[in-house]
Q: What sequence folds into this?
């Protein structure tokens, strides 16, 4: 079965794609006010408090390697020996955002086989979400992984809900784009059910994408613009927020991976799921598993085991500042003098980032990057509401 077969053969996909959900519509101002009431954040245009960015407020810095494929994520059915195999990996910077959507699609492929025993390879957010989706179908699921939360790549994700760093525009197929739109729609609806539940660490924020030149708004965001409540695109920034004359803005969900993944592990184990520590070096290791159906959610690890040379790391480095209770917004931009900068609020601290090093396997913290980001965000804070 090829990706085109399952994308267009799925009744859910056909219904979603034929219903006009990808039309790029936006939420009306009145809807945005209602959303603000429920989201416990300020209206999009409200004044912002400056982030206090300085080296003496940095609590930790971490590095993660996003599993990136230039053609986009791999989600398709295959086989290995006499086992039915579904690949579900390579989600780049959109793993957390897309997790419930790609999990539902992958689980649908597994359910077609009617197997009662399923093995999941990998315990990051994709593996856990897929495992839980299959459990809810009444299947017995075992997760196999070398590392478990809090020691997964997913624990190091920025994890603001907005699927990004997913593909190279000149290499992604229309079929993969359809799959990504559908997965985003499914995932967003599921994440809303966790919003403001302290057990899962999912909260609403207002987000700003900023630019020093007009922004291309000809194509909808992944999933369709309707998934981004209160959305305004390529607006002239009269107040020049952070000195940037153009912006996109919308409400979205901030997911704290440490809290969220811990909750998913508890949900999985409470439902009788098993987690087994095991490494895989070759397809033969997988063929020896007792389950007849397998879902490969190994991320970067899938490259070696399945000889997929298309998957590479997209290195990301984050630092955390001491928390500020008055920060209810995030932003992202490519600054002409300070490079890529983005920031999101979490309960445990203010996340600051700004790096996507494709092909870079280095897991060491680059102190010069810490200083660049701290200095860049401090500069932006000095311009807040100026």
A:
């Amino acid at each position: 079965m090829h990706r085109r077969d399952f994308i267009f053969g799925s009744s859910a996909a056909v219904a979603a794609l034929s219903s006009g959900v990808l039309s790029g519509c936006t939420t009306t101002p009145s809807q945005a006010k209602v959303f603000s009431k429920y989201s416990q954040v300020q209206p999009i245009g409200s004044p912002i408090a400056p982030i206090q960015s300085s080296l003496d407020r940095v609590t930790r810095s971490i590095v993660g390697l996003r599993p990136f494929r230039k053609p986009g994520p791999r989600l398709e059915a295959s086989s290995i020996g006499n086992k039915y195999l579904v690949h579900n990996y390579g989600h780049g910077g959109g793993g957390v955002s897309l997790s419930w959507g790609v999990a539902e699609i992958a689980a649908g492929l597994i359910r077609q086989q009617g197997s009662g025993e399923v093995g999941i390879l990998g315990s990051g957010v994709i593996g856990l979400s897929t495992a839980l989706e299959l459990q809810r179908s009444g299947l017995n699921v075992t997760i196999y992984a070398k590392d478990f939360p809090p020691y997964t790549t997913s624990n190091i994700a920025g994890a603001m809900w907005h699927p990004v760093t997913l593909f190279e525009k000149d290499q992604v197929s229309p079929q993969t784009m359809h799959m990504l739109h559908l997965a985003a729609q499914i995932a967003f609806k599921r994440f809303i059910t966790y919003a403001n539940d302290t057990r899962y660490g999912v909260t609403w924020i207002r987000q700003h994408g900023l630019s020093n030149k007009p922004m291309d708004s000809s194509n909808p965001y992944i999933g369709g613009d309707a998934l981004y409540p209160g959305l305004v695109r390529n607006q002239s920034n009269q107040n020049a927020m952070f000195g940037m004359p153009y912006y996109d803005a919308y409400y979205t969900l901030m997911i704290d991976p440490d809290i969220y993944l811990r909750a998913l592990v508890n949900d999985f184990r409470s439902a009788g799921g098993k987690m087994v520590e095991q490494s895989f070096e070759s397809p033969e290791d997988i063929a020896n598993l007792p389950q007849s159906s397998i879902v490969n959610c190994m991320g970067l690890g899938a490259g070696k085991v399945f000889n997929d040379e298309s998957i590479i790391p997209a290195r990301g480095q984050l630092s955390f500042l001491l928390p500020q209770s008055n920060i209810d917004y995030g932003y992202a931009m490519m600054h002409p003098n300070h490079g890529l900068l983005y920031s999101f609020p979490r309960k445990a601290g203010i996340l600051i980032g700004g790096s996507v090093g494709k092909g870079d396997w280095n897991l060491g913290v680059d102190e010069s990057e810490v200083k660049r980001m701290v200095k860049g965000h401090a500069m932006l804070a000095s311009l807040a509401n100026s």
Notes: The domain at 3-383 is CATH 3.40.50.720 (Rossmann fold). DSSP finds ten helices and 15 strands in the chain.
